[in-house]
Specification:
With 260 residues, the chain is an alpha+beta fold. It has five helices and 17 strands. It has helices at 21-34, 38-45, 97-104, 166-181, 235-244; strands at 2-10, 15-17, 48-50, 53-55, 58-60, 64-65, 68-71, 76-79, 83-90, 108-112, 117-127, 136-141, 148-150, 156-158, 198-212, 220-232, 257-259. Strands 1, 5, 6, 9, 10 and 11 form a six-stranded antiparallel sheet that branches. The chain has a four-stranded antiparallel sheet with strand order 15-16-12-17, with helices on one face. It has a three-stranded antiparallel sheet with strand order 2-8-7, with no helix packed on it.
Amino acid sequence: MRFKINLNRSGSGKFLPINYQYELSSLIYKIINQADTDFAQYLHNNGYTVAGKTFRLFNFSRLSFDQYKVYGNEKRIEHQGQMASFHISFLVDRAAEEFIKGLFMNQELQLGDKITQIHYEVSGIESCERPIFQEKMRYRCLSPILIKQKRADGGEDYLQPKEENYAEILAYNLCSKAQAFALNTDELTPDQKVPQIDFQPKGKVYKNGVLIKRHTSAATHVIGYMYEFELTAPPELHEIGYYAGFGHLNSQGFGCVEVK
C-alpha cells in the first residue's frame, strides 16, 4: 500500500541538506519503533530475510515542496513555502492500512542534519489508489534507483542503467524480495530461474550522488540514477517493485517510482 504524507512547515527553520534521505529514513524508523505492535518491532528490528540479506520492504520518495530554492555550493535546500509532501509505500497486507496511517497521523518531524533543520507537522495522510499491474509498465523515478555490484577486491560498483548487468541484477533483486515477502528464506539457486525481463531506460538519465550519514565517521557516498523506464516482467514483480522499491537500499530512500 502507498500513502501520500502531507507536511506543514512550522518554526523558523527553512534549510535542509540536499542529502536528507538518510535523516528522513531515520525519522520513519523512529515513528515505526514508537508503535507498540509486533509488526512495528519486526519491521524495525528484522524485516524479511533471504539467505542472510534483510529486506525492509518499504520505500519512500523525495520531498516535494510548494516553493523552494537549491543552493549548490552550500549543498542546501531552502523551503521557501509552507507545504511539502512525500510518498511512502509498504509491501504488507492491506489489513494493515489503518494501522500504518495511524502511525504517521499527527506526528511532528524534525528533519535535517547537525547544521540546519526544519520542523514539520503531519497535516494529512492520503491513501493512494492501487495501480493495475500489467506485464508492460512505464515508470518515473521519485527517488534515485541504486544498483550495486560487488567487485573482486570487496568493494562495490554503482551501475548505470545501460550497463550490461543492470537489468539482470534488478530482476534478481525483485525476485529476492518476492521470496522474502513469501517468507521463503532460501537464496535463489541456478535451478530457480529468474524470469526474463525487458528493461528499457527512456529519455535522459540523471546521475545522483548521495552522501549517507553526512558529518559522521560512517559517511558513505553512493550513486543512483533518476530516469524513466519501461519494464516488461510478470505483474507480481511490478507490484513488488512499486511497493518495496526497485534496486537496493530502498528503506534509505532509493528506488521509489510512480506509474507514468
